[in-house]
From TrEMBL:
The keyword Transmembrane applies. The chain crosses the membrane at residues 21-42, 48-72, 84-102. Keywords: Membrane, Transmembrane, Transmembrane helix. It comes from Alcanivorax sediminis. This is Uncharacterized protein.
Amino acid sequence: MAVISTQTQRLTRLPGTRTAAFSPLTLTAATLTLTGLLIATLEIRWSLQLISLTCVYSGALLATLGLLIHLLRRNLAWAADGSLLLGLGALLFSSPLLPAAAQDYLEYLMP
């Protein structure tokens, strides 16, 4: 009598399980957004404001893309992406309470 053994692959990570809360996409989006806001607060030159706007817009787009991807994959990083987008939204809607220089910059961020 012979014993036939089949090798089965073990899944180390199941598709529906929860994984880490931060991904490279989330960290890149947060870094770009915070860098853009930091450049905007320094108010060095108008050319750097264009770079600042580019950083903030690209960070927001990456956060939106990351939110969609992490929701589809059921990853906990959706909370970090969502909080980044909520923070940007809160910053835009609280612009009347901020100083005049910040209000001018935030007007360019409004779509």
